[in-house]
Protein 1
Amino acid sequence: MNSRNEVLHAKDNIRDGIGWPILNLFGFVVLVWIIVFLILIKGVKSAGKAAYITGIAPFILLIIFLVRALTLPGSFDGIVYFFSPNWRDVLKAKVWYSAATQLFFSLNVFLGNIIMYASYNKFDHNIYRDANIVTTIDTFTSIMSGCISFGIVGHLKHELNVDDIKKVFKGGPGLVFVTYPETISKFKFVPQLFSVLFFIMLFILGLGSIIAMMTCVITVIRDQFPKVKNWQAALGYALFGIACGTLYVTPGGQSVLGLVDHYGSTFAAFILAWFELVAFCYMYGVKKVCRDVEFMLGFQPGIYWKACWYAITPIIMGAIVLYTLILYEKPTDNGQDYPSIAHIVGWSITTLAVMWLPLLLLIEIIKQKKASMIQKIKGAFRSKVNWGPLKTENYTRYKEFIKDD
């Protein structure tokens, strides 16, 4: 009996039903959200203190696992496989789609978290330096994680004495929760210690992601409703998280996870990200963005950034969206097709996420005090008259800076 059946009591697919929550797993879901609530009860200050642990501890554990992975028999075969490109797949839109959505979640771009955290910086904070540091560290961490993953998979291939690494490789949640634990359990040197360290690392990484997402939502709620206290917003979000998490700890939870991940996370996020990029590059305009950066930092972004914003990134993302829609493949549930009702629910989730884009645009058009509909539409896409820095002294300098534009 593997961990999928023993721990999750997983059904073969969602056609067998979802079932009732598994009590011990539900207890852990509640425990996690209690910890998150206690961390965020005082807002971004307590979240910042927690970041010292959630940001540094995983790197220490990753280094430990990297050293251990490199010393395992057969690990080199897995790492060679990791760095060996399949040039046929490079031409597939699905690969680029997966890579782009992975970057969205890895860097937290287009999700609001970066904007939320940046709002607490000083106005003239060097965001150019931060952007380079964050992307460099993220790239390095991704490569290091890949070496660990494929090193461990290569070791499992060696232990099972199979000729093809694909026979032991399982993507998605199965890699983390099935392949990794099975391989670690076969370690000859203190496997229990590495098992504990591995799941502590997963817990801390997940905790960091939840805290970032939750802080972003709480910030938005408190900006819109100042009378709502931080602990009230955090408690409401935690209860909502428990309600949603309960679905994933049922016997059919893995099927629900696959459905929500496809329709509610990656697909919806990609569409919204592309529209956000178009608004950033063409509606507000690259010229204004460069001007604003110059006002904040004293210099304009270089030609590389301008080329990416003007053409490269919007065109590539637009092509990925187009090809993904044309060559759309329905998600599968443990190798089987989801029932029709599951796809209806999935598309409903996507619609619920994306519908705010046209809805808020329509509201903004209605709010315009213009004579004709064309003028109202144009007005909705223009910056407001009072657009600029929040502080009065910065706003005055900004207006003086842009008066010749």
Protein 2
Amino acid sequence: MFLRSIVNNAKRFAPNIRAMSSQGGPLVDLTVDNDGVAILTMQRPPVNSLNLDLLKEISKSLDEVAKNKSKGLILTSSSPTVFSAGLDIMEMYKPDFKRAEEFWTTLQDVWFKLFGSNFVTAAAINGHAPAGGCLLSMSCEYRVMVSGKFTIGLNETALGIVAPTWFMDTMCHTIPMREAEYALTTARMFTVDEALKVRLIDETATDKADAISKCKDFIEKFDNIPPLARAITKQKIRQGPIERLQKNRKADLDEFLSYLKHPKVQQSLEMYIQILKMKSSKN
């Protein structure tokens, strides 16, 4: 009964995207414009599923942005319809546990670097952003989403998964706690207009170029604000969630690995993979 409900919910809540990704070519593109704004583009086709390799490249890029003292970062996607489909399910299905450990700690690192960065961050969300894709965008300070039939949210409970505390903390830091509690428990996927209404996103855009332009406008608001004061203020406001994960980082990893070892979890992941394969074959 439990597994059947997971499958039914997977069919209902999975966006019309494929979460099976192929390799080939650089996984990210990092450019810095003349104004010192870095644009980090995820480009792991078809849907920027966050596997270990992509997360490593994002982590390295964030280090580079910090090292080069860029005044701001815009995170976006090369896909025309998907920002990021979230964590790559193949990293969790019948995993090599040494790799799984590196996968999860790298995800933690990316969150620390993005959520707690010294530089200004904005997300140009040019498509669907479920689960881990939503986490990345919420970790930024400002979000602009392209209008269309796209959705965004943390939908883990629909698959019988409990989002980690730091995922929840990030959502509670972004939208009112009552809205976050309802969204997290119901696996709510917000439309663009709904996301704007609760401030899960800050603005809408006509297309990706418009989204990037609006993100740059946000970053430019800080041109006359001393950067050190701005950065410390931001980090103090975000200190609670950051310290909570720092203190519980090993326990968080152990919980993830324990989850992967559960037979019912592996069975539900296998069923979900079959659903994705069926969707893929129909496209």
